[in-house]
Specification:
eleven-stranded mixed sheet; 444 residues; Amidase signature (AS) enzymes; alpha/beta; single chain
Length: 444
Amino acid sequence: MAAKDHHLLTAEQAAGAIRAGRLSSEDYVNACLECIGDDPLNAWAFLDPDIALVQAREMDRIRKAGRAVGALHGVPVGLKDIVDTRFMPTERGSGIYKGRKPDADATIVNRLREAGAVIMGKTKTTELAFVHPTDTTNPHDPTRTPGGSSSGSAAAVAAHHVPLAIGSQTGGSVIRPASFCGTYGFKPSRGVIARTGVLQTSETLDHLGVFARTLSDVALIGNVIGSYDPRDPASFARPRPDLVAGAGADVPVEPDIAWFDFQFNDLLDADAREGLDAVIDALGPRVERLPVSATLTGLVDVHITIHEYEFCQHLADLIETRHSDLSDTLQAVIVRGQAITQAEYEDAMAVKASADAFFAKHYLDFDAVLSPSATGEAPLLGDGTGDPIFCRIASLCGLPAVTLPLLVGENNLPIGVQLFGAVEEDDRLLRTANWMQTTLAADA
């Protein structure tokens, strides 16, 4: 491969070549920087080539000295700009935090550094990781949104700026932009990745997730960043699923996959519906269509209630002191969130608990749920960042979710297909995802 094409390597390929001495981290990072150029996608909130190259040269020095190398040694990673970094600003997509420089790295950044990763820079996010769009554009069509709120991370990976990027999902902010940008997106089970040092908008619903261009890369970085941190109340002190083993394993038996006939499936665009029907037909008896139980009815509204209520609770000081500095889009959310009563919130949490119990039982019989990742192709800029409705249930119940770039819409833009699985069985989910994409490729 010519040096100018190094940015096309996957993280797994690049890490292997760097470990073997066939490629230097400096050359790889330089190739990525050349690809980024003047950043016509507006994917980056902060990018300093000198800082990136200093890290790359240090990784090369460590390897040449014969010292230990990590799973992502010398591989550049983009971080959503809500993840704290000591030597880079973290501005959270808001002018309120312009110039903010944290005192410590987030736990996830420490994990990446331990694995030898190069922290390339900070990718753009919507305002406070919520609904107001940023100026990032879709790599496949500059007139379209990349989705929100992990806009820059999805766009940067899709455009080969970096092989890997970190995002977050409270509603649908990993799965949906991955679908719009044609990448793999993965949100592990709640508690697998510690959230310490990351902007909190909902203690109940916030998850960290990843973007990559292959399923094996998703698993590689997922294994690296999973960790326990007692400062995060959702983090758990027990072993985590081995994602690399899961993504690379053959299924012991063909999996059983469920499709729920949700009423909101009517929101699908025609091309997305046609593509999903073709996927279901190709998988044949492995997919069982299920009616929606009473337990699942209204879970989207339950998710919205918890999200908007907790957003207003966690950011109460900011809302009180800087309300006029927030966008009209976010101010409308705050009005709704502040109108939710404590009793309504507690009722929503009780419904969430019943849904958690439902899925614990459901996955005794099924390996995964098949679902749309989004309503269809990426919307035009100015029409919002897309509806996260198909991602809300997995986020509500803390279920692992992955989107695969399997479909193409009528405008030749990508459409993802989502699978979500059982809590803390993320390896099983990725194994099922690998089986599904292999099966569909063989049937094509």
